[in-house]
Design brief:
The protein is mainly alpha-helical. The protein is 48% helix and 5% strand. The protein contains 18 helices and eight strands. Strand 6 and strand 7 form a beta hairpin.
């Protein structure tokens, strides 16, 4: 991990401050905000801090995304009922309220990422080196889009703006996805006009493949929005041999490993069923089971986290090649091009680990199920649940594929209540959903 990644070059923004707090935390020994945001060095410090803010243990968006999605969609088992916030998410329904710490951290961390990314994007345009500026814009836009998308997946409405001391209005979650897509489009335009400088790429944490990541995230949020033709076009622009990942070390550890895998005290994988209904569970020969899960014969629980939460330094993918292929399959199926949808689906089913950039391979026979659109879409959904296990997108998939909305059938919440910390500081906070 580069030394620059460990140096704080950004003014510390307390999460509560993003939701109405007006306290002044200025340190007279720090660079001023203007000094930080008007130099390449200062803007780079803010930009590289985005990954740490996004993946910062129990406080960061990544852990809380995986935890909330996993408990609400039955992907995960609860290891300790004494962890009240996680247990309430595991129980679902009215047990989940605005005081839930997991949701509060998910909300606040995403808002902080948006705030910091906005500062980078809005000020990078003033730099003289346009190639360096386009790198800053593109890199910050990745995290801005992830943060907006993370809010839109779980809340019915999302703040329209993020700033200190403001009481923002809210926009519909679909409008928030549109905002994430617009962020990506501006970034793609920036790097098209001015290629990212080689110097910039040496200044950011290694592992992020920027152009492909932008295209993959665009495809993700377009499919979440139901714009299937545009999602297909975006997915077709992604190289499936490239890897884009957040890397970790002993100082900035993998948050899933650090909080859950190593402690065995918060959550674990469900089991080889992936928390799916009987008809959708993977067959025993599916090699993705062994990728995502390990067996412990010495102590309970038997099924343990593997995959991207296996070790302290295990990298976390920003997107998976299998996600992109399944987006193509879904878009084709929804356009009733069922033959080509199955072609793409079979690429995931028959893929061997050696043929995947991250080593994920089902290594199964080709699809042999029904040939109707509903049947093929169900198989695509099933494979999204397995291929993208613990990535954090299942709640959105449950809605898009019209899975049961009845409580505790395939999920224990549909959308989340707004954090009390937002409601207490912002009178524009919407009414909570009933489920």
């Amino acid at each position: 991990m580069k030394l620059l990644y460990r140096i704080s070059l950004i003014i510390v923004i307390v999460a509560a401050g993003l939701m109405g707090c007006k306290k002044d935390y200025t340190n007279p020994n720090d660079a001023t905000k203007d000094q930080t945001l008007n130099s390449p060095v200062g803007l780079t410090g803010v930009a590289v801090g985005l990954q740490k803010a996004y993946s910062n243990g129990r406080a960061g968006a990544l852990y809380n995304l995986v935890c909330a999605n996993g408990f609400s969609s039955f992907e995960l088992s609860n290891r300790n009922t004494g962890n009240v916030d996680e247990t309430n998410l595991f129980n679902g329904g009215i047990a989940v309220d605005g005081n839930n710490g997991v949701l509060g951290n998910l909300w606040a961390s995403n808002l902080k990422v948006i705030y910091d990314a906005d500062n980078v994007i809005n000020n990078a345009v003033n730099l003289g080196d346009k190639g360096y500026a386009s790198g800053l814009i593109a890199y910050a836009s990745i995290f801005r889009a992830l943060a907006i998308g993370g809010l839109a997946e779980f809340w019915e409405k999302v703040p329209d703006t993020v700033n200190i001391g403001l009481q923002p209005s809210f926009i519909d979650r679909n409008a928030a996805y549109a905002k994430a897509i617009a962020t990506i489009d501006r970034a793609l335009a920036a790097i098209s006009a001015n290629a990212i400088s080689a110097d910039f790429l040496t200044k950011i944490p290694p592992g992020m493949e920027i152009p492909n990541t932008l295209a993959a995230l665009k495809a993700r949020y377009l499919v979440f929005s139901g714009n299937y033709p545009a999602a297909l076009a975006a997915a077709n622009a992604v190289s499936l041999t490239s890897k884009s990942e957040m890397r970790f070390d002993a100082i900035t550890p993998n948050p899933i490993f650090n909080v859950s895998t190593a402690t065995n005290n918060v959550f674990q994988v469900k089991d080889s069923t992936f928390g799916l209904p009987v008809a959708l569970r993977p067959v025993a020969a599916d090699k993705r089971i062994a990728f995502y899960m390990s067996i412990n014969t010495a102590a309970a629980p038997r099924w343990r986290i593997n995959g991207f939460g296996a070790a302290l330094t295990t990298a976390w993918p920003v997107y998976l090649p299998g996600e992109v292929t399944l987006i193509k399959a879904e878009c084709l199926a929804r356009a009733n091009d069922l033959t080509n949808a199955v072609v793409e689906l079979n690429k995931v089913l028959t893929k061997k680990a050696a043929g995947d950039a991250f080593g994920i391979g089902a290594d199964l026979p080709v699809y042999a199920g029904g040939n109707t659109q509903p049947e093929i879409l169900e198989e695509i959904y099933r494979n999204r649940c397995i291929e993208l296990y613990m990535q954090g997108w299942k709640m959105e998939d449950l809605r898009r594929f019209n899975r049961s909305n009845a409580p505790n059938v395939e999920k224990n919440r549909n959308l989340y209540p707004f954090p009390f910390r937002e409601r207490d500081n912002n009178p524009n906070t919407p009414t909570d959903p009933s489920f």
